[in-house]
Amino acid sequence: MIIAAAAYTPQWHLTWAALETKLDGWVGQAKAAGADLAVFPEYAGIEAALIGAPQNDPGPFAWRDAMVARAGDWVALHRALAQRHQITLLAGSLAQEAEGAMRNVAHLCLPDGATGAQPKIIPTPYERSEMQIAASTDLRLFETPLGKIGVLICYDSEFPLLARHLVRAGADMILVPSCTEFPAGQTRVRQSARARAIEGQCLIVQAPLVGAVPGCEVVDTNTGRAALFCPPDYGLPPDGIIAQGETDVPGWTIADVDPTRIAQARTSGQVGNFADWDGQDGVRVALTPL
Are 221 and 108 in contact (CB under 8 A)? Predict the structure, then answer.
């Protein structure tokens, strides 16, 4: 299976047709490289609201509402792209009204036109306070022709139990679309993604937002490095990095991977992180005075 992870910069477009042309080019490029799955970043969907000439920044609430207004069009566009190019797409997430609240949602679009939505489970403090993005408790595992796919949106990847729920349910891979403003945030997400690959002994794909978007506070500056991670084990890269792009350089990072082979480490690896996870449950910490 060939997987493409995008380091992607949203930009202003004078018309919706210009946005469609840009994304068609990106997806076409991934397909031309043989990709079966292409992953776009968190909040790449704000591009649906960047139509017209740049203007004074209206603030995070206004950007949230602008994304919500175009969410249906954004999903329909990616559904059409997935069908046109016969590729599975994780569309860049965006704010959307779902489950009776405003949430940050990523959509998985299949070549046959089917779509599934994964809301962010744990919004960041900025999302909660500045955008009033609500948390979700609905963690989903998508059963697709490419395997069982889970999605942890950016900050969600920093919580081991969320990934644990997915790998226990049989996830072959976990996609991590991310959006981080500073190098510290990118480091947290990147290192968390690598840790999740070790703990779950599975494939993790990170796709970051990069670059600057003038006049848009929500994504005014972004840093990241696309990568595919695995557990360091027999027959796998000893550093756990299957492929990675350059920091802050837009483009696709593409690799040919076999998620099933990666998951074989769960039963025949040097260590048994996946199998031994439950061994932590009965451990007690005793404070012993010296």
Answer: no
d(CA 80, CA 88): 11
B/e letters for 142-156, b = 16+ CB within 10 Å, e = fewer, are: bebebbbbbbbbbbb
- Across 37-191, where does the E strand assignment appear? 37-39, 88-98, 101-109, 115-119, 141-144, 147-151, 173-178
Contact between residue 203 and residue 259 where contact means Cβ atoms under 8 Å apart: yes
How confident is the model over 14-61, as pLDDT tens digits? 999 999 999 999 999 999 999 999 999 999 999 999 998 787 788 899
> In one letter, which amino acid is 82?
A
Partner residues linked to 252 by β-bridges: 6
DSSP for residue 202: S
Angular region, 251: left φ>0, alpha ψ -120 to 50, beta rest: left
Q: What are phi and psi of 223, to 5 degrees?
A: -140, 145
Give the global pTM.
Answer: 0.96
Which residue type, as a one-letter code, is found at position 47? E
CB-based contact 38:4 (threshold 8 Å): yes
Q: How many CB atoms lie within 10 A of CB 100?
A: 7
User: For residues 78 and 105, is the Cβ–Cβ distance under 8 A?
Assistant: no
Give, in degrees to the nearest 5, the angle at Cα 89 between 170 and 40. 100
The letter for the amino acid at 76 is A
Q: Mapping DSSP to helix (H, G, I), strand (E, B) and coil, where does residue 288 land?
A: coil
